[in-house]
């Protein structure tokens, strides 16, 4: 919205700064961060008062988690409120990719909120039916995939770009939308599975989002794409502002989610943020790079899939408990030890993902 202040500029004054995506991204970061600090404590007080017993704890979970009983959930509302406010304030409203990513984020947040609400109200971990969640998630992702394809350059629309092999495009045709659905729904559920320890999910989300934000900025500038030899997708640069809002809002949330957590993100936040990662990857034509940047989430999801399939086939378990962060809890690792080591892994993977911009 503040972009329109550029109409007051004569080209050499303060208002001219609003033309620059990097300046507005900085503004979005600070806005989201201040939002988190201002509304974090009041929101937690409201959630604690309304939820009573807080998020129910799994009976079959690690023994150390029972001390967390009574901690309120739905803390993702703080992150979503911060990033939506900052994005609407600082991003251009005429950019279709910004609206596409916001659509996915808010829609998945609504699904997560309904699931969290059902869990708190019933005081069990069942929540909304998994089939209903998946069906709604597929529908939202399909709309987003079609939406992105309409605004991709004709040479890229419906095609899959490969990292490193930058001259190669795979024409998916009508299969692009189903592919986008897999990316967005997969990312949403992978982040959801990762959100099992205090602070575990939010930092890797911030790392992955900031990385994809940099990629979005790069592929949205023709001079950068020519230098890096990557595909140019006009308009994606504005996504950097959304990414900055995620990082600012995420830091504000982490202030209260750091061990011991005063509030949990809940599905409200994890589904929304995971869906946002998938949506950014689809918008920027970097779907495969997301698997690298968000490799931690991929491993968490695969650990569950492997555990379930192997148990059904043999009656035995590969991991002491899935997702894999619980496996390390069972092995005796302290929760902060797991969290910080997983953060380090996320940072390493992000650097590798960024390197694909130059390597060919």
UniProtKB/TrEMBL annotation:
Membrane topology: Multi-pass membrane protein
UniProt-annotated location(s): Cell membrane; Membrane
Keywords: Cell cycle, Cell division, Cell membrane, Cell shape, Cell wall biogenesis/degradation, Magnesium, Membrane, Metal-binding, Peptidoglycan synthesis, Transferase, Transmembrane, Transmembrane helix
Recorded catalytic activity of this chain's protein: UDP-N-acetyl-alpha-D-muramoyl-L-alanyl-gamma-D-glutamyl-meso-2,6-diaminopimeloyl-D-alanyl-D-alanine + di-trans,octa-cis-undecaprenyl phosphate = di-trans,octa-cis-undecaprenyl diphospho-N-acetyl-alpha-D-muramoyl-L-alanyl-D-glutamyl-meso-2,6-diaminopimeloyl-D-alanyl-D-alanine + UMP
Pfam families: Glycos_transf_4, MraY_sig1
Requisite cofactors: Mg(2+)
Pathway: Cell wall biogenesis; peptidoglycan biosynthesis
Spans traversing the lipid bilayer: 20-40, 74-91, 97-118, 130-149, 169-188, 200-219, 239-256, 263-282, 288-311, 338-357
Entry annotated with the keyword Cell cycle: yes
Domain of life: Bacteria
Enzyme class at the top of the EC tree: transferase
Record InterPro entries: Glycosyl_transferase_4, PNAcMuramoyl-5peptid_Trfase, PNAcMuramoyl-5peptid_Trfase_CS
GO molecular function: transferase activity
PROSITE patterns to which the protein is assigned, alphabetical: MRAY_1, MRAY_2
Listed EC numbers: 2.7.8.13
Protein family per UniProt: Belongs to the glycosyltransferase 4 family. MraY subfamily.
Functional description taken from the UniProt entry: Catalyzes the initial step of the lipid cycle reactions in the biosynthesis of the cell wall peptidoglycan: transfers peptidoglycan precursor phospho-MurNAc-pentapeptide from UDP-MurNAc-pentapeptide onto the lipid carrier undecaprenyl phosphate, yielding undecaprenyl-pyrophosphoryl-MurNAc-pentapeptide, known as lipid I.
PANTHER family: PHOSPHO-N-ACETYLMURAMOYL-PENTAPEPTIDE-TRANSFERASE (PTHR22926), PHOSPHO-N-ACETYLMURAMOYL-PENTAPEPTIDE-TRANSFERASE HOMOLOG (PTHR22926:SF5)
Protein's name in the database: Phospho-N-acetylmuramoyl-pentapeptide-transferase
Organism the protein comes from: Thalassococcus lentus
């Amino acid at each position: 919205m503040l972009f329109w202040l550029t109409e007051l500029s004569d080209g050499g004054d303060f208002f001219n700064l609003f033309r620059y995506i990097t300046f507005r991204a900085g503004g979005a970061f600070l806005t989201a961060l201040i939002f988190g600090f201002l509304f974090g404590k009041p929101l937690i007080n409201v959630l604690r008062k309304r939820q009573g017993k807080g998020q129910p704890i799994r009976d079959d979970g690690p023994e150390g988690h029972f001390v967390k009983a009574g901690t309120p959930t739905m803390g993702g509302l703080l992150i979503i409120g911060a990033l939506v406010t900052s994005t609407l304030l600082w991003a251009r409203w005429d950019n279709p990719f910004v609206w596409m990513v916001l659509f996915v984020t808010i829609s998945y947040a609504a699904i997560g909120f309904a699931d969290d609400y059902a869990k708190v109200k019933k005081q069990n971990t069942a929540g909304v039916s998994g089939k209903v969640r998946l069906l709604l998630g597929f529908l939202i992702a399909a709309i987003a995939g079609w939406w992105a394809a309409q605004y991709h350059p004709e040479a890229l629309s419906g095609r899959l770009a490969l990292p490193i092999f930058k001259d190669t495009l795979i024409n998916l045709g009508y299969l692009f939308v189903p592919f986008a659905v897999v990316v967005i729904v997969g990312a949403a559920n992978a982040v959801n599975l990762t959100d099992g320890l205090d602070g575990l999910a939010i930092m890797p989300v911030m790392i992955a989002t900031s990385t994809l934000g940099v990629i979005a900025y790069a592929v949205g500038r023709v001079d950068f794409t020519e230098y890096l030899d990557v595909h140019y997708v006009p308009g994606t640069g504005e996504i950097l502002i959304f990414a900055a809002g995620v990082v600012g809002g995420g830091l504000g949330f982490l202030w209260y989610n750091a061990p011991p957590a005063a509030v949990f993100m809940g599905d409200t936040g994890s589904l929304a943020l995971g869906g946002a990662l998938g949506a950014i990857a689809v918008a920027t034509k970097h779907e495969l790079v997301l698997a690298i940047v968000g490799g931690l989430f991929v491993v968490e999801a695969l650990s569950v899939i492997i555990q379930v399939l192997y148990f059904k086939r043999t009656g035995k378990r590969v991991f002491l408990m899935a997702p894999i962060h619980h496996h390390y809890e069972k092995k005796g690792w302290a929760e902060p030890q797991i969290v910080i080591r997983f953060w380090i892994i996320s940072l390493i993977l992000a650097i590798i993902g960024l390197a694909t911009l130059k390597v060919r």
